[in-house]
Amino acid sequence: MQATAHILVVDDEASIRTIARAYLEQAGFQVTCVEHGAEALRLALSDPPDLILLDLNLPGMDGTEVTARIREHSDVFIMMLTARSDESDRVAGLRLGADDYLTKPFSPRELVARVEAILRRRRGAPQRDAALRFRSVTLDPEARTASANGQALELSPTEFDLLHAFVRHPNRALSREQLIELVWGSDFYGTDRVVDVYVGQVRRKLEAATGSILIATVRGVGYRFTDERLP
């Protein structure tokens, strides 16, 4: 039987914590609520949840700092909550390693649906594929590890899934819609802007390790992984 997923809700607004707890618990999740970033960081590292619902605009240690500090140690799923309308804030959070975002005010039912969609990516059947080896990149789906030029890549869960999608389809132009289907699934609620942010993140990490641009932009189509497959 599937263990109950644990959700850590981090928000300084009591009403948001109350609503999130009520709907998530009704959906069958175990929920812990805190209002400060420092407490969220302590709990995330000492008793890791399955997903963190994290307000970006926290007093003191804000959500971007919490995300960055967590990503130094953990690949736990992070969904940002933000009342900010400026896209640059959301992009900054995604670049630090958040997996999704939801803008306030939000529908509690949509919140539950998006949490379930993220967690389904981890609860799916474990990968049994053999390691995929290229001239520069090696990816092991079962161990969920990746390296470039022999250097381990530090990837968030979504970044790993995106790189896996690319290496499964080398030298093939993949549209944003195809990448959403391969990585986020058909019940994805976000926009294709999220795809662009994550492609940029993975491309920069590969370039830092190899000195080469291994994910090319295909104008009018999407993106293509161009490393040479080894026999």
From TrEMBL:
It comes from Candidatus Viridilinea mediisalina. This is DNA-binding response regulator. Residues 129-227 bind DNA. Residues 6-119 form the Response regulatory domain. Pfam families: Response_reg, Trans_reg_C. GO terms for biological process: regulation of DNA-templated transcription. Keywords: DNA-binding, Phosphoprotein, Transcription, Transcription regulation, Two-component regulatory system. InterPro entries: CheY-like_superfamily, OmpR/PhoB-type_DNA-bd, Sig_transdc_resp-reg_receiver, WalR-like, WH-like_DNA-bd_sf. The keyword DNA-binding applies. Residues 129-227 form the OmpR/PhoB-type domain. The keyword DNA-binding applies. The modification 4-aspartylphosphate is found at D55.
